[in-house]
Amino acid sequence: MRGPGVTHLAGWLFADLLLVLVLIVLGGQTVHTVQDAAPAPAARASAAPSATPSTTPSAAAPRIGMDPVSKRLKLLVSQDVADDLRGSGSAREAARRRINKEVDRVLAGEKRRGAMIFVWGSDGGCAGCAADSDRSSRYADAAAEAILRGHHRLLPRDAAFYRGYIDLSGGSGALRMEVFFYNA
């Protein structure tokens, strides 16, 4: 007569692994909230003051983390900025300043700090030309680096990352940003 074999033990092993997986998933479902530093304002006193003022609990504490909705921002630059970024010396620095001036303009009303920054570029090498993927990739990377080094108040260097991507839908020299902001 045969005793319990390897197949019997394999079933228990998979059952245990499934249990561990369920515990990991449930543990990752916790919600982190910020507790209010000050208590809620006291209820208005009636004609007869009470010995202990009553307070109302806060409705909902804000969530800590990154807002899942991004903000898409078009930077008003042209093909000459793309050309100058490929150059060297003062032309390159002027192009970087122009890009950072545009970033400051589009972020003027924002109060939250950036968490992740994506930069999308389209470069065909001349005004009106069809975008070239290799040039567009280099343009977007150079623009992302310029923005990273731009010392923006809302786009700190410790943001998750700055990445450049190809935007073949825009006209040659087009540049846009997509920013995910922190909630708090």
Overview of this protein structure:
By secondary structure, the chain is of the alpha+beta class. 34% of the residues lie in helices and 14% in strands. It is built from four helices and four strands, in the order H-E-H-H-E-H-E-E. A four-stranded mixed beta sheet has the order 1-4-2-3. Strand 2, helix 4 (133-148) and strand 3 (161-166) form a beta-alpha-beta unit. Helix 2 packs across helix 3 (90-106). The chain is elongated and about 75 Å long.
Topology overview:
Blueprint: H1 6-27, E1 71-75, H2 79-86, H3 90-106, E2 114-121, H4 133-148, E3 161-166, E4 175-181
Parallel strand pairs: 2-3
Antiparallel strand pairs: 1-4, 2-4
Helix pairs in contact: 2-3
**Largest beta-sheet details:** 4 strands, mixed
Q: What would the principal axes of the Cα set say about the shape?
A: elongated
Report the β-strand fraction as a percent range.
5-15%
Number of contiguous helices = 4
Evaluate the radius of gyration.
27 Å
Amount of helix: 25-40%
Query: In whole angstroms, how far apart are the ends?
Result: 67 Å
Quaternary state of this entry equals single chain
Mean pLDDT value:
76
Please give the number of β-strands.
4
Read across the widest sheet, the strand sequence of neighbours is 1-4-2-3
The low-confidence runs, each spanning 5 or more residues with pLDDT under 50, are 34-40, 42-47
Order of helices and strands: HEHHEHEE
Output the structural class. alpha+beta
Which tags fit this structure?
184 residues; alpha+beta; four-stranded mixed beta sheet; 4 helices
